[in-house]
Request: fold
Amino acid sequence: MNPHGYSGPASPGAAPGQRQSGSFDLSRLRLLLPFLREYRWRVAAALALLVGAKLANLGVPLLLKEIVDALSPDRAVLAVPFMLLIGYGLLRMSTTLFAELRDVVFVRVAQRAVRQVALSVFRHLHSLSLRFHLDRQTGGMSRDIERGTRGISTLLNYMLFSIIPVILEFVLVAAVLLTKFDWRFPAVTFVAVGLYVYFTIAVTEWRTAIRREANELDSRANTRAVDSLLNYETVKYFNNEEYEARRYDRSLERYETAAVKTEASLGLLNVGQSLIIAGGVTVLMIFAAQGVAARELTLGDLVLVNVLLIQLYIPLNFLGMAYREIKQSTTDMDRMFALLGQHREVQDAPGAVELPPGSLPIRFDRVDFGYDSARRILHAVSFEVPAGAKVAVVGHSGSGKSTLARLLYRFYDVQGGSVSIGGIDVRHLQQPSLRASIGIVPQDTVLFNDTIRYNIHYGRPSADADEVVAAAQSAHIHAFIESLPQGYESTVGERGLKLSGGEKQRVAIARAILKNPRVMIFDEATSALDSETEQAIESELDQVAVGRTTLVIAHRLSTIIDADQILVMDKGRIVERGTHRELLAAGGAYAQMWSLQQQQRSAAMVEAGN
Reply:
């Protein structure tokens, strides 16, 4: 259950992050209330400053009326009303001062809400299963989060400093009109405001669908661009720069069409709002002018009506923009909060325990598993890795070898049978405790776009600099790092693309060595290394594995001849098991694989000799 209680899209038929509601949905504000309560004194102070600004703003036209009347030719002007003019200036200054102080007081509330929600989404994404992250589109998702966090600040500011002020100003202006003028003035004002609000809401609801489409197309275009740039080398290999550009341009073209619709509909909204405001102001000024002509009202009253209406309609016009921005913000936030609504496929069971200290045997007991129901990967797989032993798994590509490591890490839950470590089913363990006890050198090493030191240090952030260097030396990469102009501070590029496959794999080995886990998994850990480096690192890996429970997923059979047991997998089943000698003597699938690799090795040596 996510910490904000968000249950995802309103309708199962809606696209992710979209709500099929045409109404003004402020449920997102409810999710932000905890952050407002945390800073309730700041919020109260901001609201007090807001009221002060509005009262000062209302005092300006009232004082201006007195100044105009005092200077009217109908009266004998004995002296310039300096005190009234000074008071007018002070009220003008107070309006701006209170408004700026309000913003200064409230800015921390808005920024803290943005920070906390963004952090919640970030943590939740890391808690989701591997299945979600394999299916995600990184570019579009990052854009969704960016727009969503920006929408939080917009929503808070517009709700507290646009909607509430306009309502307050309307109440104050209505009170003045009711007390100083006849019923026609407040009646016309109420009708104009009612028409304005109705028109704004109706047109904005229509525009929301257009905005959603534009957001979706924007995310798709960004996803297309990021995906293409992440696969830069592949694009170059196949000379497909123009092909990628055309695909990206098609996405931009669709977004362009939606963006034009958005702006056109905005123009329609603005014109309609201006017509309503102009009509209301014109009617009231006619009433006021008639009153002055009939000597029922003074020139000051005419000025008062004009300034009051301007002061009301300017923020009311801003209310239209505020409503649009709030609708846009909730639309933008929908997709981000939908991420919080994503179900955690793998989560700790109630009462989950930590792994006990000591050595850790591993047991797979009749494990059935498939990434989807239509395709089973593992079929009743059973084996044990005794504490401190080394067990190797071999087999053709797609036989299910790497899936074993993912299940041991509990990236997925098995559909049948069980996986246990230290005698405890992994589903009954706390995930951080489980993963802290396992180190892995994966076949496909992905590094952070940071320094070599950072990527090695990532294995154990509490390690000191000497331990990082020792781990690099054990992985036979220290000399290479020292040869670089910036040494350990050299950056590795996006996904480690500045390093060769072998260099990346040695960084991964150093990272696993630094972690110093009780269980080691080598998933074809030396597949990207040349034979000479492989032999050097194999001896180091053997030293690393001493005293640890070790699972080796191997392609080169020469690297696992010393394993305590070798499992041969085919189509998700274990078809042979035994030591290297036993499997060769059996003359089965393993013996055939060994013979083929030996022939390939001999052929490579002959070719190298020529």
Observations:
- Residues 241-293 form the longest helix (53 residues).
